[in-house]
Amino acid sequence: MKLKSTKYYLKIIDEIEKVRTKNNINWMDVLRIAFRSSPGEARKLMIRINKADDEVSRLFKKFSE
């Protein structure tokens, strides 16, 4: 298996960053709508999302062990 160049991977990372930036704006808009229409339910959902994000961060730390 031949590895691609670092430049190739960095270009893909740049493209992912652009897409994620736009999608994060959309995600924040959905969050605003959720808190306007049902703040209690939105808060509960955010707590669950935050716990899952904490788990993802914990798993990412394994890369640096």
Q: What's the short story on this structure?
A:
About 85% of the residues lie in helices and about 0% in strands. It is mainly α and about 60 residues long. The longest helix has about 30 residues, at about 5-35.
Describe what you observe in this structure.
It is a single chain. With 65 residues, the protein is mostly helical. The protein is built from two helices and no strands. Helix 1 packs antiparallel against helix 2. The protein is flat.
Secondary structure layout plus pairing:
Layout: H1 6-37, H2 39-61
Helix pairs in contact: 1-2
Written as H for each helix and E for each strand, in order along the chain, the element string is: HH
Structural class assignment: mainly alpha
What is the oligomeric state here? single chain
Q: Whole-Å distance between the termini?
A: 27 Å
Tertiary shape? flat
The Rg value, from CA coordinates, equals 17 Å
Strand portion: under 5%
Report on the biggest sheet.
Answer: none
Mean pLDDT: 91
Q: Percent helix among the residues?
A: over 70%
Could you tell me the number of beta strands?
A: 0
Outline the low-pLDDT stretches. Answer: none
Number of helices: 2
